[in-house]
Specification:
Blueprint (H helix, E strand, L loop, with lengths): L1 E12 L2 E12 L3 E5 L6 H9 L6 E6 L2 E2 L10 E5 L10 H11 L4 H14 L15 H13 L5 E5 L7 H18 L2 E6 L2 H7 L2 E6 L2 E6 L1 H6 L4 H6 L6 E4 L10 E4 L4 E4 L4 E10 L3 E9 L2 E8 L9 E6 L5 E3 L8
Parallel strand pairs: 3-8, 3-9, 6-7, 7-8
Antiparallel strand pairs: 1-2, 1-4, 4-5, 9-10, 11-12, 12-18, 13-17, 14-15, 14-17, 15-16
Bound molecules: adenosine-5'-diphosphate (ADP) and magnesium ion.
Magnesium ion binds next to helix 1.
């Protein structure tokens, strides 16, 4: 079964077209991540799916049912926001139970679902606390718990980890991945963070300026980007781009080489000067200036001591290089 189908969905605010002809399918149980730079329309698309905004045109189907006219509460979705949006005067238990009470669920159903969700999210010790008495990570888990108890057909997450510090973000990311495995629910997760997208998604949807640039599994997009935008967006450090003429290829084109595919070679085709070295312990990033304001990042596995200012030459396997035309389309 298909959890969600979007057909030619457009959304404009006045004269501003924010979403342009979005076609998309989310399969049952799939974890889909919308990723793209700030302002590209990710939240708007999620809000259109949730029914918090009306689509200007196009069809939205959830579980095969056309829901364009269906109010948010009747769409079978639950949404988790970056801002948690918990009720400050309610305990953790009551925050999680509220939507079920409003649905008129019987007491024993509410108790069973809240118990199960709080066990899954390790919230059992905090059920009597109010949100102000919790850490940011715990609050976000309550917000997730509030979505779980509703047993929605589709979970929507809008940058749920953005307010957490780096260590907690990674832990919570792993918890969300585990949760998806346990619940087997369909999830759409919005982020501007390519690492979150790569690590969580079954399927990534790359958005840019209100359009879908490419859809695919993380490795499909990494290994086979359709264009220069996708190639540059996924991967950290990001792909290096150079005028192809610099390596003797056809003029007007751009060559793309990932940092891990460059090597420091005795007589490689590219030569320059080391301008900066980032020693990360597990990896070493060497930034090389080729002149003409062209800088490349070389990612070396392990620890290397490279002195800034030393001259280097760089090599790569042409099989690992990408080629883009003037419009940024992939040509090789
Ligand atoms: N209610 C609104 N009225 C007018 N413009 C809006 C509204 N909501 C969002 N936008 C515009 O739509 C674009 C996409 O916004 P948004 O979906 O929030 O992007 P993202 O979540 O990818 O950062 C932005 O240019 C934003 O200014
Ligand atoms: Mg947003």
């Amino acid at each position: 079964m298909t959890a969600l189908t979007l057909s030619n969905v457009c959304k404009s605010f006045g004269k501003v077209d924010v979403l342009k002809n979005i076609d998309l399918q989310v399969e049952d149980g799939e974890f889909v991540v919308f990723v793209g730079p700030s302002g590209c329309g990710k939240s708007t698309l999620l809000r259109v799916i949730a029914g918090l905004e009306d689509a200007t045109s196009g069809d939205i189907r959830i579980g095969g049912q056309l829901v364009n006219q269906t109010p948010p509460a009747k769409r079978g979705i639950a949404m988790v926001f970056q801002s948690y949006a918990l009720y400050p005067h309610l305990t953790v238990r009551d925050n999680m139970a509220l939507a079920l009470k409003q649905e008129g669920q019987p007491r024993d159903v509410i108790d069973a679902r809240v118990s199960e969700a709080s066990r899954m999210l390790n919230l059992e010790p905090y059920l009597q606390r109010r949100p102000a008495e919790l850490s940011g990570g715990q609050r976000q888990r309550v917000a997730i718990g509030r979505a779980i108890v509703r047993q929605p057909k589709l979970f929507l997450f809008d940058e749920p980890l953005s307010n957490l510090d780096a260590a907690l973000r990674m832990n919570t990311r792993i918890e969300i991945a585990n949760l998806h495995r346990t619940l087997k629910g369909s999830m759409i997760y919005v982020t501007h963070d390519q690492t979150e997208a790569m690590t969580l998604a079954d399927k990534i949807v790359v958005l840019r300026d209100g359009r879908v640039e490419q859809v695919g599994s993380p490795m499909e997009l990494y290994n086979n980007p359709a264009n220069q935008f996708v190639a540059g967006f996924l991967g950290a450090p990001s792909m290096n781009f150079l005028p192809a003429a610099r390596v003797g290829a056809e003029g007007g084109r751009t060559i793309g080489i990932r940092p891990e595919h460059l090597t420091i070679a005795a007589d490689g085709p590219l030569s320059g000067k080391v301008v900066h070295v980032e020693e990360l312990g597990g990896d070493t990033n060497v930034i090389v200036d080729l002149g003409k304001e062209e800088k490349l990042t070389v990612r070396l596995f392990g620890q290397h001591h490279v002195s800034p200012d030393s001259p280097v030459s760089l090599g790569y396997d042409p099989q690992n290089a990408f080629m883009f035309d003037q419009e940024g389309r992939r040509v090789a």
